[in-house]
Amino acid sequence: MSVAFRRESDDEHLEPRFELPIPPGPNLVTSRGRALIDERIALLEASLPDAADEEAAKRIQRDLRYWKTRRATAIETAARTDGIVGFGSRVTFRMAGTERTATLVGDDEADPAAGLLSFSAPLPRALMGAEAGETIAFNGREDAIEVIAVG
């Protein structure tokens, strides 16, 4: 018998809804990152009663599970103050002739356009442990990055 005659609904052919992926490794957050997680949870909880339909409510609940997991696993970490690039550091560097300033933050707080780089991304990982005046290898070049200042 044809599938068209046997199927009662199209629900069995819908794409499955997977949980949002949790980034691997420790969930380091700045105090600002922790506050952003709390704000996101509050916003989602407030929007749940106003969900347009059951599908919208399921999406909000899925997002809530993600953010509550991120809050539960958050390790609030202060920036280093010893002049060495680490989590939470604000670093000014020159790469490919362009000077940039970035702050190394947690995965959920990252916003590259705003100068907030995830500590687990390749560039911040290369910068970790450096001090002002050092030249760092990156992307196959020994002198790719010059660290100008660490704050």
From TrEMBL:
InterPro entries: GreA/GreB_C_sf, Tscrpt_elong_fac_GreA/B_C, Tscrpt_elong_fac_GreA/B_fam. GO terms for molecular function: DNA binding; kinase activity; RNA polymerase binding. Residues 1-18 have a biased composition (Basic and acidic residues). It comes from the Bacteria. One of its GO terms (biological process) is regulation of DNA-templated transcription elongation. Residues 1-20 are annotated as: Disordered. Keywords: Kinase, Transferase. Residues 82-148 form the Transcription elongation factor GreA/GreB C-terminal domain. PANTHER family: TRANSCRIPTION ELONGATION FACTOR GREA, TRANSCRIPTION ELONGATION FACTOR GREB. This is Nucleoside-diphosphate kinase. It comes from Sphingomonas adhaesiva.
